[in-house]
Amino acid sequence: MLMTSSDSRQDLSILAELERKVLWLASWTIHNANHVRDSGDGLKVGGHQASCASLATIMTALYFHTLRPQDRVAIKPHASPNFHAIQYLLGRQTRDKLEAFRGFKGAQSYPSRTKDTDDVDFSTGSVGLGVAQTLFSALAQDYVRSHGWGLARPEGRMIALLGDAELDEGNIFEAMLEGWKQGLRNCWWIVDYNRQSLDAVVREGLCERYQNLFRNFGWDVVLLKYGALQQAAFAEPGGDVLRRWIDNCPNQLYSALVFQGGAAWRKRLNDEIGDQGPVTALIERCSDDELTALMNNLGGHDLGSIIAAFDAVDHDRPVCFIAYTIKGYGLPFAGHKDNHAGLMTPAQMDTFRKSMNIRVGEEWSRFEGLDHVPAEIEAFLDRVPFSSAGARGLQAGHIAVPAELAVTLQPRMSTQLGFGALLNELGRSDTAVAARIVTTSPDVTVSTSLGPWVNRRGLFAREALADTFKSERIPSTFNWEFSPKGQHIELGIAEMNLFSALSALGLSHVINGERLLPIGTLYDPFIARGLDALNYACYQDARFILVATPSGITLAPEGGAHQSIAEPLIGLAQDGLAAFEPAFVDELAVILAFALDYMQREGGSEQSEQNWLRDETGGSVYLRLSTRPIEQIKRDMTPALRQSIVDGAYWLRAPGPNCQLVVAFTGAVAPEAIQAVGLVAEDRRDIGLLAITSADRLNAGWTAACRARERGLIHARSHIERLLAGLPRHCGIVTVLDGHPATLAWLGAVNGHRVRPLGVEHFGQTGSIDELYRYYGIDANAIIAAAQVIAPGRPIRYLGAA
Ligand SMILES: Cc1ncc(C[n+]2csc(CCOP(=O)(O)OP(=O)(O)O)c2C)c(N)n1
Ligand SMILES: [Mg+2]
Hints:
Layout lengths: L5 H31 L12 H18 L5 E4 L4 H10 L5 H5 L29 H18 L11 E6 L6 H13 L4 E7 L12 H11 L3 E5 L3 H8 L3 H10 L2 H10 L1 H12 L4 H7 L3 H9 L6 H10 L6 E6 L21 H10 L18 H9 L29 E2 L1 H14 L3 H5 E6 L8 H7 L1 E2 L7 H4 L10 E2 L4 E4 L3 H11 L2 H4 L5 E6 L8 H9 L5 E4 L18 H7 L3 E4 L4 H14 L21 E5 L5 E2 L7 H9 L1 E5 L7 E6 L3 H11 L7 E5 L2 H16 L8 H6 L7 E6 L4 H4 L1 H5 L2 E5 L10 H8 L3 H11 L12
Parallel strand pairs: 1-2, 2-3, 3-5, 4-5, 7-10, 7-11, 8-9, 11-12, 12-14, 13-14, 17-18, 17-19, 19-20
Antiparallel strand pairs: 6-15, 16-18
Helix pairs in contact: 1-2, 1-3, 1-15, 2-3, 2-14, 5-6, 5-21, 8-9, 11-12, 11-13, 17-19, 17-25, 21-23, 24-28, 27-33
């Protein structure tokens, strides 16, 4: 858009006005939320005016000049007001939302794909995650295009705007390493190098370290250190001395002088440089204001330099721009080390308003206080490439999923083996669903049973690479060649990368307009390692299946912290993630077919009357699986059973009318529950055995039905309420799972039954499954002992015999 013509000068002067406007609107939005609107709750936290000011120039250049509709951006979370202001200027954000910033249903404090209405590309908030998301989105784009999809659309750039202290987050470096391995392209990271974090001024010399680091990983590094004013001054006689002084000035001192302004600059420069002829003359020629402008004129606040640097990139290699900026640029607390949460006082805001030529009452007017006439600015805004293509979120069609997935049941098998067999069958099939599946795993592909699938579908890389073991004729179970058509993305061990990758792949339908069905596998305990990235993946409504295996103390010989305890509770609590823990492989087949469909749904949020879940909205799925081989049940998969498995539970043995005891189990402890019920049957009447495939969905349905009844829908019944409806009051429930007992303890609250929840509360041990189940009290005997107490009656004769 910009050329070296009078047109471009005109554009640049409009951009400069828009930059001021962005600074004003972001500052005013925050001010309004804190000082004008009064929520009455006494919360006036989180200024972020300084952080927004620091990025105002760069974001103006980016959004009003550089970005194309196909580009996608993750914004430093606390620069959210800048984004909303820019969208407002482009007519894509409403004044109501800005006025309600940080308020109920207002523009969000941190950019949110799901909660904001102005086309946020990636949700950010937890620093570091959005940055990695852009990298994996670039890889996801390459994956899609390598498979021949979406080629009609131009390639986009995946861009992160990050704070310099954001680079403290290790997940960024984990992502960089992965990006290097995978041949990353089309990714830009723009560092807002204001040398300040929340509490502190950053260490000296960080910039050099960053540069080396990025170059080591194959990135192009572009330094935006000096603005045009400074560059012009350096070219003058004595300018080299000034430049050397700036380069050697410690970060703390530079910040302090920025805060103090012109007179302080002059004194310090004179004191330190002394009387050196040309440079002294250069300084003396400037008024205090001019000196302030000169010393504040860092690269990240010079529109012309920024635009030129962006325009100059003529390749698709990853680029890191390090832009020197001033935190609080243009505001009264610029440079002050305490400015992170700083808010302008009403008096300061008034002064600022006047300096912007904005009349009282016209604070929200888009063109108030600008020199250009509105028509000129409107015409410019109409030409902005970023907003030339309508809504940014794309859509993709639904891939049909067969109602039944083929799997051959062995008499004894584990759910993990079943998962491997199911994917192997899918891999053999020539179906659309198989073609759209993309698997990925952080170095546990084989040990989570993905090997046979990868043998069939191959590893993904943009460039083909043969398996040397194969070409050398060395026998191996695995024949893994890299090719652009491969369907497994091999990741290094970093679990944060797994979840960032799933987040990116799981948004492909929105970003690339091409649906992927991502399946990621890892060991269950290591979910905790990537939990925040998982949370953000769910928050931005990425769609994927997470297969976590092995799990629990059933992973007996591995011992200790390799045995997951809390993960079932994560499954219960994590929004956007439907958690299942099947016991039998036929259940898993049903659940996987459901999951492949569920992850594609984008319907309304009406609750279904059958289970009170909002199943039409869809979501991601977590399958907690096990390596324990257990005896499989030979049975017909009836439609009713299929539905119950999906809804979360079914009676493996239906309770009789005088039921004294229910044993409810989840997952790998099925044999213990079955055995216990058999042994108790002689001494307690009409025992029920409840197989729970999803504590998460049962729980969600129950609370939703409760809410519905409280709203007056008195007939609302959830699946678990229906299952437990016929149980007599005196019936006791023993719940058992290989995980934290609280996962199922709530079952008693559904209809007021006593519950004894069994599970694992303490770190694991090495041992055999029998030893550990006994030690932690989830074996048949522990179930019987619990039954004896909770369902009083004559002594259970097999207590101690199991
Ligand atoms: C994971 C995480 N930890 C802590 C925070 C709180 N936090 C928000 S901004 C910030 C400092 C960021 O500094 P920088 O990235 O340099 O941005 P600047 O404030 O300079 O704009 C911190 C610690 C967060 N948002 N996310
Ligand atoms: Mg900073």
